[in-house]
């Protein structure tokens, strides 16, 4: 493999602001095409980033261009159809989080990807921050002992995104599937990815469609709000086969300060991110150590890891099995909230 040829589907925000800047830092990648159901958007993207050709659909793009992988940056409801199309044509897949709209879509993707035998990676960038990568190395080296408890939150006081995000037919849900996937996946990764077995969760629909003035809201490129039927906050606990538990709290809107944290607790020590702090003991005293892994561009690292795996045949850190397991957790959260009881995963 000389240059890696990438075909992008979805010419929206994440492709423009995170994936393209990461690709532009490399000389071993060629973006061979971009497709979007909004053809004008795909054309504009091609012009802005010097991509040779724009297409109105993934099918038209894959009919015409040869590529090593398809980078899926469409809204959640289109992840499955795009991934299945790419797999059917023997193309590897890098898929934005969450894997899919729901578990049913995710399982169809898994079937197609396994049948085609193509590489797959879920794009979960927060795993690739320098702090998270160092902490996972420390966990793997046994520095914290057995991890038996974790707590994570990604809460916004007022931050419901505008556009398809609030329409479950396109998004699959609210903050659980949109930003919860970031913090829950990262925490699970730091715990060493134990097997989830049960979840108990609750979702709220209280204040998400707020009219608060003076607050910033992320807007999809199509910012017309077609529906608003998603939760605006959620909390719960995920139990794992090894006895460990993870508490989580997520919101797009909550009458509480916004926060983002991840904490894991082990038998020998604990840790928190942002900034990375290790809670331990030395000479009989408590210690708070702050290792400094430096700053990195997590989107660059994520894409770099996938390209490394394509070149070497290594299995990506966030592979198909892990992506499906994460989707099972998300589904379990929604099922538990709907049924108002703990559910098995
Ligand atoms: N990793 C992160 O931090 C992060 C941040 C934001 C969004 N995302 C994810 O990236 C994805 C896109 O989000 P966004 O904010 O860029 O949305 P966006 O609305 O800005 O862009 C999505 C684009 O996909 C296009 N599209 C939808 N279905 C399509 C299909 N079947 N074929 C071709 N084009 C199609 C739309 O026309 C739109 O241009 C979502 O899955 C979202 O969860 C990830």
Structure notes:
With about 350 residues, the chain is an alpha/beta fold. The protein has two domains: about 5-125 and about 310-315, 3-Layer(aba) Sandwich (Rossmann fold); about 125-300 and about 325-345, Dihydrodipicolinate Reductase, domain 2 (2-Layer Sandwich). The protein is about 35% helix and about 25% strand. The chain contains ten helices and 15 strands. It has helices spanning about 15-25, 40-50, 60-65, 80-90, 105-115, 130-140, 170, 175-190, 300-310, 320-340; strands at about 5-10, 30-35, 55, 70, 90-95, 120-125, 145-155, 195-205, 235-240, 245-250, 260-265, 270, 275-280, 285-290, 345. Strand 4, helix 4 and strand 5 (about 90-95) form a beta-alpha-beta unit. Helix 1 packs across helix 9 (about 300-310) and helix 5 (about 105-115) runs antiparallel to helix 10. The mean pLDDT is about 95. Nicotinamide-adenine-dinucleotide (NAD) binds near residues 11, 13, 35, 96 and 222. Nicotinamide-adenine-dinucleotide (NAD) binds near residues 9, 37, 73, 75 and 76.
Helix and strand topology:
Elements: E1 4-9, H1 13-24, E2 29-35, H2 39-49, E3 54-55, H3 58-64, E4 69-72, H4 79-88, E5 92-96, H5 103-116, E6 120-123, H6 130-140, E7 147-155, H7 168-171, H8 175-190, E8 196-204, E9 233-240, E10 245-251, E11 259-266, E12 270-272, E13 277-282, E14 285-289, H9 298-312, H10 320-339, E15 343-344
Parallel strand pairs: 1-2, 1-4, 2-3, 4-5, 5-6, 7-10
Antiparallel strand pairs: 7-11, 8-9, 8-15, 9-10, 11-12, 12-13, 13-14
The structure holds nicotinamide-adenine-dinucleotide.
Nicotinamide-adenine-dinucleotide binds next to helix 1 and helix 4.
